[in-house]
Design goal:
The protein is of the alpha/beta class and 405 residues long. It folds into four domains: 146 residues, Rossmann fold, CATH 3.40.50.300; 68 residues, Helicase, Ruva Protein, domain 3 (Orthogonal Bundle); 90 residues, Zinc Finger, Delta Prime, domain 3; 44 residues, no CATH class. Helix content is 50%, strand content 7%. Strands 2-3-4-1-5 form a five-stranded parallel beta sheet. Helix 9 packs across helix 10, helix 13 packs antiparallel against helix 14 and helix 15 packs parallel to helix 17. The longest helix has 16 residues.
């Protein structure tokens, strides 16, 4: 068992971190009574596992509870600052432990930061049981963890904590006179506690960091001070992470479903968290053709105009321009005929390869080409008032129709 020393110099979130399952709040679907994870911790028979969840949801806390409640040698590293050399030292330590009939638990925080080579180096020791891996990640392990390593781990999905859980955590920090803020005797109302819990977006660490910061500058904790402390930091949005793609997907689907109000909300989520407005504008250009297309050809004009306007003036002034474009797209009549038609044409290209261009619609700039029949019997459409009948597709695709009539 690893002894955890709680120094006053550590952040509040670390000082009051639970060390037993009884003190752990939230995540009942994963760690509640009778659940698999609780059983393997209590029985000290842990498989390799990965905790996947948003910041402040309890991933690291669960790892430290495992350290306290098991007899294994618990080793913690961060994927940001460690590599294969550190792993070799840990493997040697684990092998010595095995000789003494003791298992080794390796906790890797932010395991998604380890590259392919580093994860591959870990794989054989997880596979043969030299190391029991406990990984923590905010990113989807399906994309960030090697398939071979992932297949040897149980994945436990942690969710954002509920406001009521955060309120209980905040109250605990305020009462704790040894490791918490109890000695400061802060003046804070239930309404302010509720506000902190609400603005923390399920992130216990964010809630406690704001509480500690505000408490360090004023004995009277007010809603105004709390809002100033949060600023934009409470908006969970990683431009390179899964949440980025979740939210742009939500915006796209809200517009597709003609829900202008929902589309505005998701737009605001992106912009208020600092998203590049030109990224959003580019997605609108795509949407205008993919989901509206022939139903309203002006949608593309609106999207391109929105992109240009955003390029001219930038944030924050361009937010209303994007709002106008998003609402316009949401309220437009929808048609995916172009999108589907191109997909069918592309499928034919992949299936049939480089089909020859019919001779009669080939250019014939040389005598040889004319002698070979290039351009022969071509009907110049204007001479026929665009009513001529001739085939423009390769012979294998004769009379193929991609667009609805």
């Amino acid at each position: 068992m690893t002894k955890i020393i709680k120094s006053k110099s550590k952040p509040l979130a670390d000082r009051i971190r639970p060390v037993t399952l009884a003190d752990f709040l939230g995540q009942d679907e994963v760690i509640g009574k009778g659940k698999l994870l609780r059983q393997v911790i209590e029985s000290d028979r842990l498989p390799s596992m990965i905790f996947w969840g948003p910041p402040g949801s309890g991933k690291t806390t669960l790892a430290f509870i495992i350290a306290q409640q098991t007899k294994s040698d618990f080793v913690q590293i961060s994927a940001v600052s460690s590599g294969v050399k550190d792993l070799r030292d840990i493997v040697k330590r684990a092998q010595d432990n095995l000789a003494n009939k003791k298992s080794t638990i390796l906790f890797i925080d932010e395991i998604h930061r380890w590259n392919k080579a580093q994860q591959d180096a870990l794989l054989p020791y997880v596979e043969n049981g030299t190391i029991v891996l406990v990984g923590a990640t905010t990113e989807n392990p399906s994309f960030e963890v090697r398939g071979a390593l992932l297949s040897r781990c149980r994945v436990f999905v942690l969710k954002q904590l509920q406001p009521e859980h955060l309120e209980r955590i905040i109250k605990k920090a305020l009462k704790d006179k040894k490791q918490g803020l109890g000695q400061l005797e802060l003046k804070i109302s239930p309404a302010v506690i509720k506000q902190i819990a609400q603005m923390s977006n399920g992130d216990a660490r964010a809630a406690l960091n704001v509480l500690e910061y505000v408490g360090s500058i004023s004995k009277n904790v007010t809603i105004k001070l709390v809002k100033e402390a949060f600023q934009k930091s409470h908006l969970m949005y990683d431009k390179d992470g899964e949440e980025h793609y979740n939210i742009i997907s939500a915006l796209h689907k809200a517009m597709r479903g003609s829900d202008a109000d929902a589309a505005l909300y998701w737009l605001a989520r992106m912009l208020e968290a600092g998203e590049d407005p030109l990224y959003v504008a580019r997605r609108l250009v795509r949407f205008a053709s993919e989901d509206i297309g022939l139903a309203n050809s002006k949608a593309l004009e609106q999207a391109v105009a929105a992109y240009q306007a955003c390029h001219f003036i930038g944030l924050p002034e361009c937010n209303v321009i994007l709002a106008q474009a998003v609402v316009y797209m949401a309220k437009c009549k929808k048609s995916n005929a172009l999108y589907m038609a191109y997909g069918q044409a592309a499928q034919d290209v992949r299936q049939y390869g480089n089909l020859p261009v019919p001779l009669h619609i080939r250019n014939a700039p040389t005598k040889l080409m004319k002698n070979l029949g290039y351009g022969k019997n071509y009907k110049y459409s204007p001479n026929h008032n665009y009513r001529e009948k001739q085939e423009y597709l390769p012979s294998k695709l004769r009379e193929r129709k991609y667009l609805p009539k």
